[in-house]
Design a protein that fits this description.
alpha+beta, Peroxidase, domain 1, 2 domains, 4 strands, 4-stranded mixed beta sheet, 63% helix
């Protein structure tokens, strides 16, 4: 829990700076670049997190790698995390920062599961309808799962809307199993 609180505090600090600079999305993308590199490159992750490397050397490499790529304030922010020995939290800070951006821009990430892939026009229709329903800009993340048979399943941050054919069939099966059928009807059907 402590790391989550620390990450949120760092994200809020960078977010406030980004607001002043009118660069909230640019700073988020820059921080996401660092986080993505930490996820994708085990050597870089090891370099950033190992205590055996002196902070001065670590900061020199960070400046060399990101000096021309990141906005100056984001680069300084990453260097401060090294100074404070919080660089291991950069991925979590990036996630917290993105949540602040989404809240500010009235956006919500939504998981949409479909039985089969659809074209871009259909994806846009789904996104538009979700935005209307949620009252904020929906950012859908589509995935295909054939076992839902048809329809779709939508997961927001706190709600699941299951409009799949699989759920409907399961519901009908449960209803049929619970149904109290008269025995004379069953007897006539057996003849």
């Amino acid at each position: 829990m402590r790391d989550e609180t620390i990450s949120k505090n760092y994200a809020e600090t960078l977010f406030e700076l980004a607001l002043r600079e009118e660069s909230i999305e640019e700073y988020g993308a820059a921080l996401a670049t660092v986080a993505r590199l930490l996820d994708e490159d085990a050597r870089f992750l090891g370099f950033i997190e190992t205590p055996r490397i002196d902070d001065i050397d670590r900061k020199a490499v960070v400046q060399k790698v990101f000096g021309t790529v990141l906005p100056r304030h984001v680069l300084n922010f990453v260097l401060v995390t090294v100074d404070k020995r919080r660089q291991r939290l950069l991925r979590e800070i990036s996630e917290q920062y993105n949540a602040l951006v989404d809240e500010r821009l009235n956006r919500e990430h939504v998981s949409v599961t479909l039985a089969r892939s659809v074209d871009k026009a259909t994806e846009q229709v789904i996104a538009d309808r979700l935005s209307d329903t949620l009252g904020k800009t929906a950012i859908p993340h589509f995935r295909v799962k054939p076992d839902i048979i048809g329809g779709l399943v939508v997961r927001t941050s706190n709600t699941i809307y299951d409009g799949s054919i699989r759920r409907r069939l399961d519901g009908m099966r449960r209803q049929l199993l619970r149904a109290d059928l008269p025995t004379e009807v069953l007897g006539d059907a057996a003849k």
